[in-house]
Write a structure and sequence with these properties.
The structure holds two protein chains of two kinds.
Chain A lengths: L4 H10 L9 H30 L7 H4 L12 H25 L3 H32 L13 H32 L11 H26 L1
Helix pairs in contact in A: 2-6, 2-7, 4-5, 4-7, 5-6, 6-7
Chain B lengths: L10 H23 L4 H23 L7 H8 L5 H23 L13
Helix pairs in contact in B: 1-2
Classes of the chains: A mainly alpha, B mainly alpha.
Chain lengths: 219, 116
């Protein structure tokens, strides 16, 4: 039995071998996600400083991202739907990881496929949102009719980078899901750790959205 | 070593957290929908944000069940970002002040939003 708590930390770091007690793939994914955390943090901190520094009024996201379904515009409704879609996909991903460890290939495959489809619909809605902003509201990275020019540059940079992560995640999910389906991992000893590693990436994408939602759309 | 069997937890845990994330997202959307302003708005946004982030990392990403060494290695470094936030907040406010001092208040006239 290995020691836990603080003495466990000392034990893990000083034992001159694998430190974290997780497969290397998982440790590497965590370290990649750590570096990604810094990238997104830099974007959000950059957004914060340009928003603080500008003397022009900041466009009100609640109004900019309002959408009308015939009647009065509902504030932030598309963003809210996108948020719920991403959370739903995180749930199906968590289920997929669970089913993977139970070696239920069929359920794992379908749950990962649903996760990927939800992710793809998120990207689709984002494309719709960008189009609406660029075409109808005249938002550009260098100017917009509603207020501070920095609004556009921050918006396209932050949501664009996040959207790229979601798109990459959809491809990643589809590749792994297909390999689960065709028995690729069965030939390698039936180890479904990869489903959890893919899940880590996917939950991270959801995690970043939590911060973007709070700081860019709600603030 | 936990990883030998992988991260296996009862499915009910995931359903609970899933539901909780929905409720928290709904609340944070309500902050905007009910048009809360001022300190109450910022506090609620941050509380719901950190709760959601915490549940995703702890439960969905299984951080709760990892060894302390991994927790420290991954969650520790981002704390440094707080220093960057503080520095840039000071800097940003200072730039705004100097802009007002040298160029005066903004004369920007926002156009009315086209509604769809």
């Amino acid at each position: 039995m290995e020691p836990g708590g603080t003495s466990g930390v000392i034990h893990d770091f000083s034992r001159d071998k694998q430190a974290f007690g997780v497969p290397w793939g998982k440790a590497m994914m965590w370290i990649f996600l750590l570096s990604d955390t810094f990238i997104f943090s830099c974007f959000l901190v950059g957004y914060m400083s340009v928003r603080l520094a500008t003397t022009d009024p900041w466009p009100i996201p609640s109004e900019v991202f309002a959408l009308s379904f015939g009647g009065d515009p509902i504030p932030l409704i598309l963003i809210a739907i996108m948020t719920f879609i991403l959370i739903t996909s995180s749930g199906t991903m968590a289920m997929a990881v669970n089913m993977g460890y139970r070696k239920d290939r069929k359920k794992t495959f379908w749950l990962m496929l649903i996760t990927a489809l939800l992710g793809a619909s998120f990207v689709g809605m984002q494309a719709f949102e960008w189009t609406k902003l660029i075409v109808d509201e005249g938002v550009r990275p260098w100017s917009n009719p509603m207020g501070a020019a920095q609004f556009g540059s921050s918006f396209f940079m932050i949501t664009g980078f996040h959207g790229m992560h979601v798109s990459a995640g959809v491809i990643y999910l589809l590749v792994v899901a297909n390999r689960v389906r065709n028995g690729f991992y069965e030939k390698r000893g039936g180890n479904y750790e990869i489903v959890e590693i893919t899940g880590l990436y996917w939950h991270f994408v959801d995690l970043v959205w939590v911060f973007i939602f709070a700081f860019f759309y709600l603030w | 070593m936990a990883s030998e069997e992988g991260q296996q937890h009862p499915i009910s845990v995931y359903f609970w957290i899933w539901g909780l994330l929905f409720v928290l997202s709904f609340f944070s959307y309500m902050v905007d929908y009910l048009n809360l302003q001022g300190a109450l708005r910022w506090t609620l946004i941050l509380v719901f944000m950190f709760l959601k982030a915490g549940f995703i990392v702890a439960i969905f990403m299984h951080m709760k069940w990892e060894r302390l060494a991994l927790k420290i290695a991954i969650i520790g470094p981002p704390v440094a970002i707080l220093v960057l936030i503080w520095l840039m907040a000071v800097e940003g406010s200072y730039i705004e002040e100097t802009r007002v001092d040298y160029y005066g208040e903004s004369t920007f006239e926002p156009e009315a939003l086209p509604h769809h």
